[in-house]
Amino acid sequence: MENLRELELRIEQYEQENKELKLRLAELNDFVENASLPLHWVNAEGIIIWANQAEFVSLGYKREEYIGFPISNFHADQEVITDILYRLKNNQTLLNYPARLLCKDGTIKHVLINSSVLWKDGEFIHTRCFTRDITLLIQEQEKKADLIYDLEQSETKLKIAIESTNLGIWEWNPKTNDLYWSEESRHVFGYPAEEKITFDTFIELIHPEDRSLVLEALRGAGEHGSDGQNYVIYRIHRFNDNGLRWIKAQWKLSFKTDRYASLLIGTILDITDVKYSEERSAKLAAIIGSSNDAVISKTLNGIITSWNDSAERTFGYSAEEIIGHPILKLIPPDRVEEEIQILSRLSKGERVDHFETKRVTKNGNLIDVSLTISPIKDAEGKIIGLSKIARDITEKKQEEQRKNDFVAMVSHELKTPLTALTGYLQLLTMRAKKAEDDFGIKALIRAEAQTKKMVAMIHDFLSLARMEEGKIQIQRELFELHHLIVGIAEDAKFLTSQHTIKSFGCEGVVLYADKDKIGQVLMNLISNAIKYSPAGGLITLGCEQLDGKIKIYVSDEGIGISPADQKRLFERFYRVNNSGIKTVPGFGIGLYLVSEILSHHGSEIKVESEENAGSVFSFYLETVTRQ
Ligand code: ADP
Q1: Mind listing the pLDDT tens digit for each residue in 279-294?
Q2: Residue 502: inside a domain, yes or no?
Q3: What pLDDT is stored for residue 259 in this prediction?
Q4: Which residue CA neighbors atom 13 of ligand 1 most closely?
Q5: Which residues, by range, are in coiled-coil regions (predicted)?
């Protein structure tokens, strides 16, 4: 009985103990289940067999999406999970092993894995693995790395900027006077790299007139901080070559730890070139401002960008009114084409000199202007705009018109008495021939030749006046060139006794041209050949017949023409400035007429000449083939 009671008591006690054990186990389960650290178990096949609530919360999966699946599905790096499983199977314990887990929402979680294996009788039961989330930490680190990278980048950029601008860096301590110069600062001052720089040496290098300016500015900055002036421009004499340079120094006050340990940190830049170009621009602006000519600049597409006082006087618009507007405002509608042609010449880099045209003013008046237009190029030689100098030549033009009218009138009045004079001379010659008066014949023939010369000159004046007014008319006819040439050569012979005049090669050529004007061309060329061969010699009036064309030339053995003069010979009123021919009479219009008459025939006058070796003037005309 006693034994039974004892047994009952023992059973009771056992049950009690069992109950407590179960309670503790439940508590433990509860603790593990609800632990804040994510936990999971993986079996020998790598399948997740259990995980706690924290694990699901951390990765975002539901139980049914996680339990029963291979752990490798939830790792971002397959080689990492393979390594983890390998180590665990080989009975290693993992401490803070870094890994990246895949969350349900597609994000990645950085974790540290701590894991060991539960073995029973040498058999792998399952892993016990808890993870610590270090995503925030990693993100912080990445941010820090990015920041460091950005900082390094800005530092590199700053370095490149400093190097490319040739900025020199300096530091100056106003309390101790310690001065530091970067390599480029030394370079600007021509100061040797090995030599120590002191504040006093620096001041000595400053131009004496600018020293106090610099000292005041620097001391002021050192005392009052960066609220006041923060730059100064001064001159220096370079240490190595004493060369004068302009410097711009800028600074910022920097406090190292307290107010008393402040430093001025700054830059210096050699601005000599800028200074000089500023001076040059100021001088140019003054010249342009005071010029009597209108000076205008415009972009390539014709927008006005600058306008001086004279432009305002000439065209009536103020700078404010016209800058930014198209140049077309100044061009009469019937001359717009002309501007396009000018632009095409300029875009080839050519200059347009003394181009006479008409422009329209603000109040609608047409004025005569002479334009000189040149391209504006940038440092690389690219055309970026155009500069236009316009001179108002309205008065000059009116004066010319009056002169032309006068010349035309005088020439016309002179022609009538000269025609009568020639007629009487011819009559007298006939009578002298009848009377066999040899002296009379010679004298009268000479008188007739001189009269013809005068007629030719008056003819030239009239032609010039007509040409100026654009009234020249070409009256073409068919004629035998040979007859014209022989007649002119004969007439010319009466003008000189010193020269031999020959004509050849023109037989059988028929031209369809203005006979009088071609005669005028040849007469001008021959009388020049006579005038400019003071020592005499051979003058040839020749033709070279080509296919459908004829080359007509006049050659002499005279004083010749320099290459520079050859270029300007055909300009109106141009005469060579040569002391040897100062006394030779002339007006500088003969060759201008020659070139104008020929251009109206679609031809061009050419000159080949060498000083003191004679000249050849030639041109081509189309010939007519006889049926
Ligand atoms: P001009 O009335 O002065 O002769 P032109 O127009 O006929 O005017 O000629 C212009 C200039 O060209 C002359 O002043 C002269 O210097 C030069 N010239 C013309 N023809 C010749 C020539 N055959 N030989 C040398 N110089 C010439």
Answers
A1: 888 888 888 888 889 9
A2: yes
A3: 53
A4: 575
A5: 4-31
Separation of alpha carbons 291 and 310, rounded Å = 7
Q: Is 172 helix (H, G, I), strand (E, B) or coil?
A: strand
Pocket of ligand 1 (CB under 6 A): 524, 528-529, 532, 556, 558-561, 569, 574-576, 581, 586-592, 615
The two tokens of residue 225 are: 């901080």
* Number of independent structural domains in the chain: 5
Last-in-domain residue among 231, 247, 276: 276
> Do 618 and 478 belong to one domain?
yes
Q: What pLDDT is recorded for position 626? A: 62
Q: What per-residue confidence (pLDDT) applies to 33? A: 65
- Distance (Å) from CA 454 to ligand 1 centroid: 18
| Phi, psi torsion values for 473, nearest 5 degrees | -125, 135
Please tell me whether residues 503 and 586 are part of one structural domain: yes
Do 612 and 493 sit in the same domain of this protein?
Answer: yes
Distance 172 CA to ligand 1 centre (A): 76
| Confidence (pLDDT) at 258 | 52
Q: Which of 569, 589, 594, 609 to mutate to test the pocket of ligand 1 (most atoms within 8 A of CB)?
A: 569
pLDDT (0 to 100) of residue 552: 97
Residue 576 CA, closest ligand 1 atom number: 16
Which pTM was predicted? 0.47
Which atom of ligand 1 is the closest one to the Cα of 578? Answer: 16
Its domain, for residue 385, covers 291-392
Clarify whether residues 482 and 526 are in a common domain: yes
Whether residues 329 and 387 fall in one domain: yes
Asked if residue 570 and residue 488 are part of one domain, the reply reads yes
Beta bridge mates, 129: 40, 115
pLDDT (tens digit per residue) in 228-237: 668 999 999 9
Where the chain has pLDDT below 70, the residues are 1-2, 27-35, 222-229, 255-261, 626-627
- Identify the pLDDT of residue 7: 82
Distance 621 CA to ligand 1 centre (A): 22
Question: What CATH number is given to the structural domain containing 502?
Answer: 3.30.565.10
Beta carbons of 304 and 331 less than 8 angstroms apart: no
The 10s digit of each residue's pLDDT in 148-207 is 888 888 888 877 777 777 889 898 888 888 999 988 999 999 999 888 999 999 999 999
Which pLDDT does position 400 carry in this prediction? 82
- Same domain flag for 495 and 603: yes
- Report if residue 21 sits inside a domain: no
- For a pLDDT cut of 70, what percent of the chain falls above it? 95
In a domain, 459, yes or no: no
Beta strand segments in 322-462, E? 352-360, 366-377, 383-392
Domain containing 97 — which CATH number? 3.30.450.20
In a domain? residue 345: yes
503: CA distance to ligand 1 center in Å? 21
Per-residue HEC secondary structure of 256-316 comes to CCCHHHEEEEEEEEECHHHHHHHHHHHHHHHHHHHCCCEEEEEECCCEEEEECHHHHHHHC
Nearest-atom number in ligand 1 for the CA of 570 is 6
Instruction: Decide: 104 and 59 in contact? Cβ < 8 Å.
Output: yes
Q: Where are the alpha helices (DSSP H) in 36-134?
A: 53-59, 63-66, 78-89
Pick the atom of ligand 1 nearest to 586's CA. Answer: 2
**Considering 276, 303, 320, which residue would you say is the last residue of a domain?**
276
C-alpha 557 – ligand 1 centre gap (Å): 14
Same domain, 107 and 74: yes
